[in-house]
């Protein structure tokens, strides 16, 4: 083959588009070594930039994300910018920063980056796709070395997780606090983040909660006291002290769950119970309640629970959590009739907790809810009604769609594999593989959609049959509770059943 002249080679270089290079940096929660710090990764990438005389236009940084995940926000933003044509060169410190799942990492290096015209550089691995996936100048083949490196990085991730779990378990055995946030009433010591110390403000609220419980105030009474005083809930207090992140804010009011969690948490006795093995260490920090008071409260909780669960005439509350007050949107509680009569009713306790200005206090008898559910169930069945013949015809139609989609997907897969084999043998091209991929992906989408449609149709018919039996009272209502989303009790005790979709 005739050798190209230098003039012709220079002309080819001029035609290459200018590089828009970016640096990608990832720092996991588990690995905080100095060598992998954000500053060190940036330093290594900048050194490559100066040596190569290629400026880094910006950095994409994922701080606190595992390499096993690829839904990292900055990584996803980088891939979007690649698809938008804003980038054509990505530089990382080493391959482990890109990811620790060898299959997915290999996909980005061998398929995604090349098909989008991206030059990928891993500085410490001496890997540069300036000449394609393999740089033949390097002393050993990248096609062999890079997959091995990716597999090794994945194994390292597994080992790091095991070591971290072992370290945390050891810390738990020695009474070191390993939680991400201190419980309400405590904060982490400024001198030692592994040590709990009482929070000067929140600890007052916690001590008051235990005092009220000690003096015989029930959970509902404590909740009402806290809300009337306008005391901040644990999440409100944490946010006011700088907590950020995707945490459920709730209604902004105290509730029975949050109060009971405090009253049953042994951390407040100066004891830590942590880790998978539930390592227990006493006297690790200053208590907010003495052990005797705490144990007395636990015995009272247990006694109440025992009395409720083992009352011979108590029936099952099949609508637990389903009955909703239309006035305030809160869940209504089931209670027994006066003097332990053998009947039950549902009442909204928001009025008792927060006052009459928050809710008028809905009330409805349980037997009225049963009647309303049976009546509205029959109306719902009439709306959904489908015969067995109609169902079988629908399934037969969906089976034919699945068969056709499956054949189309198999053909597209076989064609893609054939192109890949040709590429490996040096007879094909990456462009042909990339061109075939959308056809395969579309075929897969159609197949999955057909399968999902059949599964949805089967599920709908199973639910219909179950509802039909319940409407005829062949099975109890407890069998179809999962089909009920809510039972809303409105003014004048009007009951509306909302069925799950």
Structure, described:
This protein has helices at 6-15, 38-52, 73-83, 95-98, 102-115, 142-173, 202-214, 219-229, 234-240, 256-263, 291-309, 350-354, 366-384, 388-424, 430-471, and strands at residues 21-27, 56-63, 89-92, 119-122, 127-128, 186-188, 196-198, 272-274, 279-281, 323-325, 333-337, 341-347, 363-365, 484-489, 495-499. Helix 2 links the parallel strand 1 (21-27) and strand 2. It starts with 5 loop residues before the first helix and ends with a strand. The strands form 5 sheets. The chain has a 5-stranded mixed β-sheet with strand order 2-1-3-4-5, sandwiched between helices. The chain is flat and about 90 Å long. Mean pLDDT is 81; it is low at 7-14, 133-145 and 306-314. With 501 residues, it is α/β, with parallel strands linked by helices.
Which SSEs are present, and which pair or pack?
Elements: H1 6-15, E1 21-27, H2 38-52, E2 56-63, H3 73-83, E3 89-92, H4 95-98, H5 102-115, E4 119-122, E5 127-128, H6 142-173, E6 186-188, E7 196-198, H7 202-214, H8 219-229, H9 234-240, H10 256-263, E8 272-274, E9 279-281, H11 291-309, E10 323-325, E11 333-337, E12 341-347, H12 350-354, E13 363-365, H13 366-384, H14 388-424, H15 430-471, E14 484-489, E15 495-499
Parallel strand pairs: 1-2, 1-3, 3-4, 10-14
Antiparallel strand pairs: 4-5, 6-7, 8-9, 11-12, 12-13, 14-15
């Amino acid at each position: 083959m005739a050798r190209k002249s230098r003039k012709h080679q220079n002309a080819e270089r001029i035609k290459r588009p200018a590089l828009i290079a970016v640096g990608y940096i990832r720092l996991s929660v588990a690995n905080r070594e100095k060598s992998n710090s954000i500053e060190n990764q940036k330093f290594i990438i900048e050194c490559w930039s100066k040596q190569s005389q290629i400026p880094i236009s910006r950095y994409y940084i994922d701080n606190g994300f595992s390499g096993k995940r690829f839904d990292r926000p900055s990584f996803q933003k980088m891939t979007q910018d690649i698809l938008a044509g804003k980038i054509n060169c990505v530089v990382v410190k080493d391959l482990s920063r890109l990811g620790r799942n060898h299959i997915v990492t290999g996909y980005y290096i061998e398929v995604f980056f090349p098909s989008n015209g991206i030059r990928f550089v891993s500085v410490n691995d001496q890997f540069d796709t300036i000449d394609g996936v393999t740089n033949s100048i390097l002393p050993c083949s990248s096609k062999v070395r890079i997959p091995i490196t990716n597999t090794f990085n994945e194994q390292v991730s597994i080992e790091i997780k095991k070591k971290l779990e072992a370290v945390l378990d050891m810390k738990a055995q020695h009474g070191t606090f390993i939680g991400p946030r201190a419980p309400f009433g405590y904060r982490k010591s400024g001198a030692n983040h592994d040590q709990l110390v009482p929070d000067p403000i929140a600890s007052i609220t916690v001590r008051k909660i235990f005092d009220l419980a000690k003096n015989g105030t029930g959970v509902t009474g404590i909740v009402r006291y806290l809300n009337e005083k306008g005391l901040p809930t644990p999440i409100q207090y944490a946010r006011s002290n700088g907590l950020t992140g995707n945490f459920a804010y709730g209604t902004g009011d105290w509730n029975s769950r949050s109060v009971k969690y405090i009253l049953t948490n042994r951390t407040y006795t100066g004891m830590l119970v942590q880790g998978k093995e539930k390592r227990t260490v006493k006297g690790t920090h200053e208590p907010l309640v003495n052990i005797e008071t705490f144990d007395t409260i636990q015995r009272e909780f247990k006694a109440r629970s025992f009395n409720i669960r083992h009352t011979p005439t108590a029936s099952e509350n099949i609508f637990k959590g389903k009955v909703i007050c239309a006035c305030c949107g809160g869940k209504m509680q089931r209670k027994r009739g006066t003097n332990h009569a053998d009947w039950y009713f549902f009442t909204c306790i928001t009025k008792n907790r927060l006052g009459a200005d928050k809710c008028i206090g809905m009330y409805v008898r349980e037997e009225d809810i049963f009647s309303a559910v049976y009546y509205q169930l029959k109306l719902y069945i009439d709306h959904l009604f489908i015969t067995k013949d109609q169902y079988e015809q629908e399934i037969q139609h969906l089976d034919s769609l699945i068969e056709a989609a499956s054949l189309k997907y198999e053909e597209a897969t076989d064609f893609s594999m054939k192109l890949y084999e040709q590429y490996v043998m040096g007879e094909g091209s990456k462009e042909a593989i990339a061109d075939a991929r959308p056809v395969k992906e579309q075929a897969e989408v159609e197949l999955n959609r057909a399968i999902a449609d059949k599964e949805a149709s089967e599920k709908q018919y199973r639910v219909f049959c179950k509802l039909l039996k319940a409407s005829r009272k062949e099975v109890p209502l407890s069998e179809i509770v999962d089909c009920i989303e809510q039972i809303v009790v409105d003014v004048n005790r009007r009951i509306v059943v909302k069925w799950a979709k």
